[in-house]
Amino acid sequence: MKKIFAITGAVFMSALFACNNYLDVKPQGQIDEDAAASDPATAQNLVTGIYNNMWVGKLHGFPFIGVTNIASDDADKGSSPDDAAPTQGQLDNLTMDANNSTFNDLWSGYYQAIARANKALGSLESSTSLDAATKSRLQGEVHFLRGYFYFNLVRIFGGVPKIDKVLTPTEAAQDQYQTRASADDIYQLIISDLEFALANLPAKGASGSAVGRATKGAAAGMLAKVMLYRRNWQRAFSLSDSVITGKVGPYSLVTDYATIWRQAGANNSESLFEIQTGTNATCDAAVEVYSNSQGPRAGGKRGWADLGWGFGGPSQSLVNEYEPGDKRLAATVITVGPTGTILWDNFRIPGRDSVENDRYNYKAYHSRTMEQFCGNQDRLPKNLRILRLAEVLLIHAEAALALGNGGAAAADVSALRVRAGLAGKPSVTLQDIWHERRVELAMEHDRYFELVRENGLAPGTAVAAFSKHGKTFVVGKHEVFPIPFTQIQFSQGKLQQNPNY
């Protein structure tokens, strides 16, 4: 089984710069369709360039942390009170508006990635240089990635413009692409993309698979998650079951929960899909500012060097959710006490009066001494875990319970609890599953979307959760974020704003 290596040069460099207008994206690395059609390596590079594009901060960096963790009840803004108050501070307080630059960053970043996927699909379709198996596999990878990009977009903004091909200048001016498709239409595109990926990708470890690239298991797991959001319980159950039973590849829970987020835990037996970093010769192969923005920040009596900016620290609400003896708490939250704390790599943070905040995201921590570090604090090579078996078990549990199979649901939940050092449960309720989901997947960038989803099934869930966090969730508004004002201007008013923004 091969490992995916990042490419450098024109394809990578073009991925670093996002255009503001989502309809104005230049060709990826200036690779033209004729070259991709006649040269297998060029076609492969187009696909690899999409993977590399996921390092761009506008996709998974500071803005992404804001709408997923900081806006939720799992995290506080952190850092000093005034730091990023107009952007991350708005998100933390749920007072965001359409002028918050976070949303334009995300919008332009994700549409740039989608444009690259559309470019690759067009080039692959016309390629005559690839054998049939390679061609279908590469197409499957691109469909998986585009489905993932749109899944994030629809959860952030609701309905968005549906761009599923490379647009000519004439097409780009048409209302069809300047206005928003419905959320249902976007979900249909996501499902179509992931179904194609499921049918055409190899299983983990099979011929043609490579560490870091999308596989049949990744497609099955992501599609199961989408079906959970669509409340298609039977399909969510069957897809998650195919992962759990090994029908789409070999997966198993990692014994030590804390090691999952270390470099040694990258691409482990539990991993279905993660963003690869540090796999080539350059030290910049990493998600921009992901780890650094969330690292412990010195303040007060310093006496030590900053490990980061201090944003997105776990909230008291999250800490209160853990049961006594749950090993996941210590693996998720760096807590700095009066006399300090020693991290897993023996780095010592002095006492509480030496830091800006007293809690930090352990899952985002990257060691400068015991893991790969080339001196670039803003590009620490930490893989970002997107989907793992534990989440698939929780999808399976919720779908099983909805279908009346309480025994399977209890077994799924118990497997995670036992690993965490807790007793299993002979039976579970929906609230039990949601509790387990929160503590198992804490700080993994899904909590805000989960609260919205759960609120749709049990009205009042999000309001109650944010109330415990000291914030007000407004039903009819906060289910999605505002459409960026900049993009509304680009569309000459054709993009309609979300309600109450």
Give a verbal description of the structure.
A hairpin with a 5-residue loop joins strand 7 (about 340) and strand 8. The longest helix has 26 residues, at about 100-125. About 45% of the residues lie in helices and about 5% in strands. Residues about 1-20 and about 25-30 have low confidence and may be disordered. It is globular, with a radius of gyration of 22 Å. The protein has helices at about 10-15, 35-40, 40-55, 55-60, 60-70, 85-95, 100-125, 130-155, 170, 175-180, 185-200, 215-230, 235-245, 290-295, 315-320, 325-330, 390-400, 405-420, 430-440, 445-455, 460-470, 485-490; strands at about 1-5, 75-80, 210, 270-275, 310-315, 335, 340, 350, 360, 385-390. By secondary structure, the protein is mainly α.
Q: Regions with pLDDT < 50 over 5+ consecutive residues?
A: 1-19, 25-30
Helix content: 40-55%
In round numbers, the mean pLDDT is 92
| Protein structure class | mainly alpha
* Principal-axes shape call: globular
Distance between the termini: 49 Å
Strand content: 5-15%
Rg, rounded, reads 22 Å
Compute the number of strand runs: 10
What is the topology, as strand order, of the major beta sheet?
A: 1-3
Main sheet specs:
2 strands, parallel
Count of discrete alpha- or pi-helical segments spanning 4 or more residues: 22
Task: Map the helices and strands.
Elements: E1 2-3, H1 10-15, H2 33-38, H3 40-53, H4 57-60, H5 62-70, E2 75-78, H6 85-93, H7 101-126, H8 132-157, H9 169-172, H10 175-178, H11 183-200, E3 210-211, H12 216-229, H13 233-244, E4 271-275, H14 290-294, E5 311-314, H15 316-321, H16 327-332, E6 333-335, E7 341-342, E8 348-349, E9 359-361, E10 384-388, H17 389-402, H18 406-419, H19 430-440, H20 447-457, H21 461-468, H22 485-490
Parallel strand pairs: 1-3
Antiparallel strand pairs: 2-5, 4-10, 6-9, 7-8
Helix pairs in contact: 3-7, 3-8, 5-6, 5-7, 7-8, 8-11, 11-12, 12-13, 12-17, 13-17, 17-18, 17-19, 18-19, 20-21
